[in-house]
Design goal:
This protein is of the alpha/beta class. The protein has helices at residues 41-48, 70-76, 92-102, 108-121, 137-149, 167-180, 193-199, 217-223; strands at residues 2-11, 17-27, 29-34, 56-61, 64-65, 77-80, 155-158, 185-190, 202-207, 210-215. It binds adenosine-5'-diphosphate (2 copies).
Amino acid sequence: MKLSISNLSKTYKNGVKALDNVSIEIESGMFGLLGPNGAGKSTLMRTIATLQAPDSGSVSLDEIDILNDKNSLRKVLGYLPQEFGVYPKMSAEELLHYFARLKGIANKDERTKMVNTALEVTNLLEVKNKSVAGYSGGMKQRFGIAQLLLNDPKLIIVDEPTAGLDPSERHRFLNVLREIGTNHIVIFSTHIVDDVKELCTDMAIMNGGRILSHHTPKEAVKAL
Ligand code: ADP
Ligand code: ADP
């Protein structure tokens, strides 16, 4: 699977050029997009997730022209935004069952299997009966991933997932990403060099709306 981003540009109404002719190709594995605040990372991720249109450029996932075929994209993409939602006072397990039902999984056994797998991969089995509203920031982030996994996406995009997490929560979260990176394309953005160092098989550095460098997996390890 290959995500091809070609010549994306975006200037906001206030004149800020958030994407300046961005082109990059991303293949399977764990891709880290490293850059300081304001680099354009969120804009790039929202654009790939088709939540926001660029002024120009294109994005394709294998044969799918993402920006013009949103329906196909929704079937393969999972996007976790930087600010996660407000959750009702339901347990993680109840909420995931609810989301699985919304997805149209009518069979209870099938739903249970799906929910348990998502809870297991995200390391939430032990707290599955606790209210998500009362979860810590890191647990909520992991719950966000659990929710994405219900849709069985091929491509997972996570925007600054470790921002604001304490060291132990951060490690737990990175371990979850590492696990899902073995069978998904995972793109995550961060301003923390160590996140990329610990996780990525591929990386790019972004600043001022531009990709400054893109390293192949082998080079990436050396570059950091
Ligand atoms: P990030 O950590 O990704 O840089 P920001 O704190 O810059 O996030 O932005 C948070 C939200 O505010 C985003 O939805 C972003 O689109 C919006 N935003 C950021 N900068 C501006 C701006 N100058 N004018 C309007 N909205 C903005
Ligand atoms: P990052 O995620 O790397 O912090 P962003 O994509 O959030 O970068 O922002 C890139 C630049 O665009 C920043 O200067 C930010 O303030 C600006 N920006 C982001 N969203 C908006 C918006 N909705 N309106 C105006 N400016 C924005």
